[in-house]
Amino acid sequence: MFMKRALLVTAAAALFALPAQAAEKVKVGFIATMSGPARALGQDLLDGFKLGVEKSGGKLGGLETEIIEGDDQLKPDVGRQLADRMVKRDQVDIIAGVVFSNVMMAIAGPVTRAETFIVSANAGPSALAGEMCNPFFFNVAWQNDNTHEAMGQHVQDAGYKRVYLMAPNYPAGTDALAGFKRFYKGEIVGEALTQINQPDYAAELAQLRAAEPDAVYVFYPGGMAVNFVKQYAQAGLKEEIPLFGPSFLLDQSVLQAQGDAALGLYNTAFWSQALDNEANVEFVRGFEEKYGRLPSPYAAQAYDAARLIDSAIRRVDGNIEDKDAFREALEAADFQSVRGPFRFNHNHYPIQNYYLRKVVKDEQGRLVNSLEGTVFTDHADAYASECKMK
Amino acid sequence: MPKITPGTLGAVAAVALLLALPPILDLVGAPFYVDVATRIAIFAIAAVALDLVLGYGGMVSFGHAAFIGVGAYTVGILSTHASNGTLLFDGALPIGGTHSALIAWPLAVLASALVAFFIGLVSLRTRGVYFIMITLAFAQMIYFFFVSLETYGGDDGLSLWERSSLLGLDLYDSTVFYYLVIFILIAVLVFCRRLVGARFGRVIVGARENERRMNAIGFPTYRYKLVCFTISGAIAGLAGALLANQTEFVSPSLLHWTRSGELIVMVVLGGMGTLLGPVVGAIFFLLLEDVLSELTQHWMIIFGPLLILVVLFANRGLLGLLRRGTGNDTR
Amino acid sequence: MTAALFAEQVLNGLQLGVMLFLMAAGLTLVFGIMNLINLAHGSLYMMGAYLTATFQQATGSFFLGLLLALPATAVVAMLVELVALRQLYDRDHLDQVLATFGLILFFNELTRIIWGPSAYFLDVPEVLSGTVEVLPGIPYPAFRLAILLAGLAVAAFLFFLIARTRLGMLIRAGASNREMVSALGVDIRLLYTLVFGLGAALAALAGGMAGPILAVQVGMGESILILTFVVIVIGGIGSVHGALVAALLVGLVDTFGSVLLPAAAAEMAIYLLMALILVWRPSGLFPVNA
Predict the structure, then answer these.
(1) Contact with chain C for residue A230, Cβ under 8 A
(2) Contact partners of C by the rule of 3+ C-beta pairs under 8 A?
(3) Could you tell me if A111 and A231 lie in one domain?
């Protein structure tokens, strides 16, 4: 009950603070993949975002808030149509969400041309961080390469000499391996690119074993992560050769399906539910209470997206029509992020810490990621220098 | 003077409605739907193309999305090279990119026609389920080809830096682009109508009904079918070129096998072998998808059974139902 | 590639092959006898995996779970046959493709509503969790070996069923001349339903056995469905032993392709194989009713 009252008080306070000319309402178009196999990610984003809105009493920055949901079906042209409709028909002020880079690349152009802000809660394609960076585009998650760079650094620091790499054969996969290699300086004894959504890795695992590496780094998200981690353990490789991955390989959205095969594996992320800061404790507890499951990093990103928008609206006193002022307010990122320190680089991508995590069992016997240390402090992405924006 | 029948009257009314749509939408304060209508018209072009082989030729192609993809990628790739000033081919005969619709779109049509020709060359040796599956297999190969095309974005796809330019028209203007697409749709319909009305069309239909007899009376049906398949692929490629311009983005998801399935649905839903049917099917399919997905997250659970019902009870398509309703069944 | 590694990859290829055979056998039987092309066969595979997982959680035993999932999936499939598919036997392939495409959408969404959007957990049974040294220096997952053996056993059983039993005789007769079978007083409808149930049980077996290796998730049926179609088309639609030969062939080509070829070529290898075989033999390797 305490929370509810606190929310009411904040809402009331915000109401008094508003000057007369401010907008009365903020409309957010929330695009995510809500059908098909990738549905789970979209659901996590949406749930996290809704919780973030609820945190300020259902009113972002004190304004009445309307969330218009859209399912892009993981088809860029459908995403484009949704974005068009939200911008032109519904006249949203902000478009948030977006799971996949290809959908983001399809909507970024037309939405920013219409001078509507995008707050990406997941997709962080390198093009939008570099030469195509845009005053109306913000990413509140990470740039695609960052998590892999962190693990490259960790594997380097841990002293592994011979590493074997695997990833799906698509841009996020090759970017991942490039990111890893940017910070790992040892020998790469083998590299396998596999088909997207390949279910079975038996053949590649046999090759991997024959190459006799000291360590293995792979990037597999979603269902592929479940397949790979299970099969790696079943092949008896887990005890033999340590496996490392980005958080996507072992996050809360796949851990339960992986089971004990994932136990003890290390991964890197910008966030962990074990991070001990006020905002995070409240978020993790609130998410579990509301949805009955532990939050994934996706949920955390989307929650932060809502908190960021809330802070920016507050900073301009609800006057979101003044786009320049609103942009500056977003850039200020004046909110308590669940990941701890957070600020935007000049390309509107985060500068933040990256942590080392390990899959353990909590006191209830659930698989979770514990916090094992900090790999990078205030880490920016490698593409910011290509961005002309100041 | 053609005879004035309810059919021609209907066609005139339909065209008038299509032309009047943007001002009407503007009037009722829903100008955004011009974009929706454009997208529907583009898919209608592709569906009409599929109807040519599916409805008239009886060739169940489960890979038509591949031709849309090839057309779209042609425009996308040319546009990329034009934007960053790089060459498409280096060497003795350097070729650069272009934004010009007059060059890029015909090339898109040509590219998909070529691909369709070679796929048809092999696939048309088989029939029945084998044909369905081999067209699917080829489409999958092309899908994976584009996925692995790293220079052009691979699975992430390729942004069009700008829309094509055409005779000084402002293709960024939704209404202008809409009228252009409608013009092309009508041209495609007229072209296909003449094609199926000519001897060519009768041979194709004859081959569907009784291939042996057509062969016996001296028609090399294989060649006719190959030409038909190639033309169909070319038109689908044109639709792809338009779609690339509308979305300003191309990606392998355009070629996903479910997209081929959706095209078949549009054709059957509207009415096979009618040319106008696929247009009705595209309208109905895309609007339904839009409305249902706004209604509930679980819209597929309604959509799937609906599809089965259509097949079971209305397999002559919506157009068939409409015509039966008006007592004007011409089939 | 050393001899030992080569042997291991052959095992991998064969294991994928028998999995594909389990899928292809049902699909090809249904096609051969009812002349029905069923895109939703992959959904039955998915059902098999989900039901095995659910029954495993309820009973605590993987084998019991699998044993229960087979009849359960068969029942679901026979219901679908009775309600919808039965009307499609006399339709052309196009109608069948469409209606069963609709079934895929339905089953996917239904699964999502019942079991949630995230991947579901199904683990390897304890007895089969380790590795077996099949050749000196090659530890091979025991569970995969079990799949290989189970698949071969089912293949043997199927050939026995078709060649030696009354049901098999009816199946063979039904495939070559439907009217004749019903004229002889056999309830052809019942036969159809039974065959459909049998195909579904085989798909469920494949799905249930794949569950511990793969992510049990919505859409898992589609990736194997297309490969299965490649198999039955290469083998000759309706031919069970064609399906076996083609399944092993595809399994091996896929495995060695992904190891020996660059990524992009490996993805296309299977489809290229199919196109080449169809150019050479337009009705597959073992055409039925040729």
Answers:
(1) yes
(2) A, B
(3) no
Q: Which residues of B touch C (CB under 8 A)?
A: 54, 60, 62, 122, 125-130, 132-134, 136-138, 140-141, 144-145, 147-148, 257, 261, 264-265, 268, 272, 298, 300-301, 303-308, 310-312, 315
Which tokens go with B139? Answer: 């489409």
Q: Which two tokens stand for residue C23?
A: 């899928």
- What DSSP designation does A337 have? -
A116 part of a folded domain: yes
Domain residues for the domain of A103 are 2-142+274-344
CB contact under 8 A, B304 and C105: yes
Cβ–Cβ below 8 Å for A105 and B150: no
CB count within 10 Å of CB C279 equals 14
Q: CB–CB of B243 and A77 under 8 A? A: yes
Between C103 and B166, the more confident residue is C103
The upper half-sphere exposure of residue A204, i.e. CA atoms within 13 Å in the direction of its Cβ, equals 26
Residue A83 sits in the same domain as residue A210? no
- By the 8 A CB rule, do C225 and C42 touch? yes
How many helices (H) and strands (E) chain B has is answered by: 13, 4
Q: Where are the domains of chain B?
A: 33-256
- Whether C145 has a pLDDT exceeding 70, the answer reads yes
C112/B304 Cα distance (integer angstroms): 14
B touches which chains (3+ CB pairs under 8 A)? A, C
Contact: A40, C220; criterion CB under 8 Å: no
Cβ-Cβ pairs closer than 8 A, A with B, add up to 84
Confidence grade of residue C14 (pLDDT, cut at 50, 70, 90): very high
For chain B, give the percent of residues with pLDDT over 90.
Answer: 16
Mean pLDDT (chain B) is 81
What gap in Å lies between CA C55 and CA C50, rounded to an integer?
9
Instruction: Please tell me whether residue C187 adopts helix, strand or coil conformation.
Output: coil
Is A256's CB within 8 Å of C118's CB? yes
Q: State the CATH number of the domain containing residue A311.
A: 3.40.50.2300
Same domain, residue pair A59 and A200: no
Interchain CB distance below 8 Å, B247 and A102: no
What does the longest C-alpha to C-alpha distance in chain B come to? 64
Residues A279 and A224 in one domain: no
pLDDT at B237: 93
Cβ of C215 within 8 Å of Cβ of A223? The answer is yes
Same-domain check for residues A102 and A58 = yes
Specify whether A376 is located in the same domain as A261.
yes
Asked whether the beta carbons of A247 and A267 are under 8 A apart, the reply is yes
What letter does residue B156 receive in the DSSP assignment?
Answer: G
Q: Do the domain assignments include residue A296?
A: yes
Total domain count for chain A?
2
Count of CB atoms within 10 A of residue A199's CB? Answer: 21
Helix H or strand E segment including A78: helix A76-88
> C9 Cβ partners below 8 Å, 6+ apart?
A203, A206, C1, C255, C256, C259
Residue A17: the pLDDT is 46
> If we measure between CA atoms, which residue out of C175, C227, C173 comes closest to residue C30?
C175
A390 in a structural domain: no
In a domain, A201, yes or no: yes
Chain B touched by A125 (CB under 8 Å): yes
CA quadruple C147, C150, C156, C159: dihedral sign: negative
B140 contact A CB<8A: no
- Closest-approach residue (CA) in chain C for A202: C12
Query: Beta A266-269 vs A350-361: how paired, if at all?
Result: antiparallel
**Does residue C114 belong to the interface with chain B, where contact is any CB pair within 8 Å?**
no
pLDDT in tens, B50-77: 999 988 888 888 889 999 999 999 988 8
Q: How confident is the model at residue B330 (pLDDT cuts 50, 70, 90)?
A: very low
Kindly indicate whether the ipTM for this predicted assembly is greater than 0.85, answering yes or no: no
For residue A243, the Cα-to-chain-centroid distance in whole angstroms is: 22
Q: Are residues A169 and A251 in the same domain?
A: yes
